Amino acid sequence: MAKLTLITGGAKSGKSEVAEDMYANEHGVCYIATSVIRANQDSEMKLKIKKHRQRRPADWTTEERYKDVSIFVLMNDYQKYLLDDATMMTTNLFFDLVAKMYNDFPGNVDEDIEQMNKDEIESIQTTILQEFSKVVDSLQRTDQEMTIVTNEVGLGLVPASKESRILRDTYGLVNQLLAKKS
């Protein structure tokens, strides 16, 4: 029977390590890292990714991707998957979808987001939710197990920028979907 576990908490709360510890003595684990190093990425993020890589057991498989996770799960048969994390996957999908919507590669995505109307925002949110639904469906179809790490969001002030508000709301929608399915 397929199993989905959701681990949530604040930024830097240790949730990734908790998830890794759950599978520490397991073999056949595939770690799906949703933050991928890009050419223009800042050194702080590169260091964070490096630390995460170093923490993983040597016999785990690492798959760095945030797109087509459901297809990857359907095409493979690992005993367990650890997806770290849904928030980064959402962020990456969001910026890809905005750039695609405005044919703006690499472009100025910040300006594009400021121009977005309600229908465009809802369209992107729907697409992102569909991606996560496909991941859950792929687990059910293959009877596999996955733990997903995600950030708790929305407990503080209302973000000042439109971009931050859209992302906060999108993270919340993703977390609702995953919580219902886990």
The rough form would be described as globular
Portion of residues in beta strands equals 15-25%
Kindly provide the radius of gyration, computed on alpha-carbon positions and rounded to a whole number of angstroms.
16 Å
Query: What is the topology, as strand order, of the major beta sheet?
Result: 1-5-4-2-3
- The SSE order reads EHEHEHEHHHEH
Can you offer a commentary on this structure?
Helices cover 53% and strands 15% of the residues. It has helices at residues 15-22, 43-55, 69-75, 86-101, 109-115, 118-142, 162-181; strands at residues 3-9, 29-33, 61-64, 80-84, 145-151. The protein is α/β, with parallel strands linked by helices and 182 residues long. It is globular. The two termini are 13 Å apart. Helix 4 crosses helix 7. The longest helix has 25 residues, at 118-142.
Summarize the structure.
The protein is 53% helix and 15% strand. It has 7 helices and 5 strands.
Describe the secondary-structure layout.
Layout: E1 3-9, H1 15-22, E2 29-33, H2 43-55, E3 61-64, H3 69-75, E4 80-84, H4 86-101, H5 109-115, H6 118-142, E5 145-151, H7 162-181
Parallel strand pairs: 1-5, 2-3, 2-4, 4-5
Q: Which features does this protein show?
A:
single chain, 182 residues, alpha/beta, 5-stranded parallel beta sheet, 7 helices, globular
